[in-house]
Amino acid sequence: METDFGSQLVPIGRILKTIGYQGGLLVDTYPGLETTWSLIDKCLMQIDGVWAPFFMVSKEEKSEGVLVIFEDLEDNKLAKSLIHQEVFVLQSQIMIGIAETEESEEINTWIGFTIHDLHTDFSAVISRIEEMPSQLLAFVEFNGKEIALPLAEELIVGLDPVQKSVTLDLPDGILEL
């Protein structure tokens, strides 16, 4: 049975093999998610049905994938036990990574997503996205006018690409500006 937490996770690669004798692992990055690896320093794997966090000591791009060394995984025998495991991150980490690194036409894939506020019944469809130096802004129609809402990683609490839905933890008062 899928938990609420598990439904917020997205696979970004699969461990192919060990490299070296100090617990190095070669990860096959899933297509389109290469930039996510440069933005993360931790990930999750499901070990015996339990989500376990793994913190990265180092990572290095290789032609066949990403060479990762995880904290507390200096033993090659233990590293071998992770071969074929899928590596996961939160959905919000992927979308922010894409938004920060892709061209503007990729950012526009958010257009048409419905934004929902975590604490109110507010919902509105994104009509356009603008990339500012410090953040992305989603523009929506609200009470007969266009307002801008920040698409900051710390505000995104849920994302459903299939339903084209984003749940934000909007700051109090932002809808009254």
| Unreliable parts | 96-104
The whole-angstrom Rg is 19 Å
How do the helices and strands follow one another from N- to C-terminus? HEEHEEEHEHHEEEEEE
Instruction: Say what the CATH topology of the largest domain is.
Output: Elongation Factor Tu (Ef-tu), domain 3
- Biggest β-sheet: count, sense, barrel? 6 strands, antiparallel
CATH architecture of the largest domain: Beta Barrel
Spatial order of strands in the largest sheet: 3-4-5-2-1-6
CATH superfamily of the largest domain: RimM
Work out the number of β strands. 12
Cα(first) to Cα(last) distance is 42 Å
Task: Describe the fold and architecture.
- This protein has 177 residues and is α+β, with helices and mostly antiparallel strands.
- The protein has 2 domains: 98 residues, Beta Barrel (Elongation Factor Tu (Ef-tu), domain 3); 66 residues, PRC-barrel domain (SH3 type barrels, Roll), CATH 2.30.30.240.
- The protein is built from 5 helices and 12 strands.
- Strands 3-4-5-2-1-6 form a 6-stranded antiparallel beta sheet.
- A hairpin with a 2-residue loop joins strand 9 and strand 10.
How are the SSEs placed, and which strands pair?
Elements: H1 4-7, E1 9-19, E2 24-29, H2 34-39, E3 42-47, E4 50-62, E5 65-70, H3 76-80, E6 86-90, H4 91-101, H5 104-107, E7 114-117, E8 123-131, E9 136-142, E10 145-150, E11 156-160, E12 165-168
Summary tags:
single chain, alpha+beta, Elongation Factor Tu (Ef-tu), domain 3, SH3 type barrels, 2 domains, 6-stranded mixed beta sheet, 5 helices, elongated
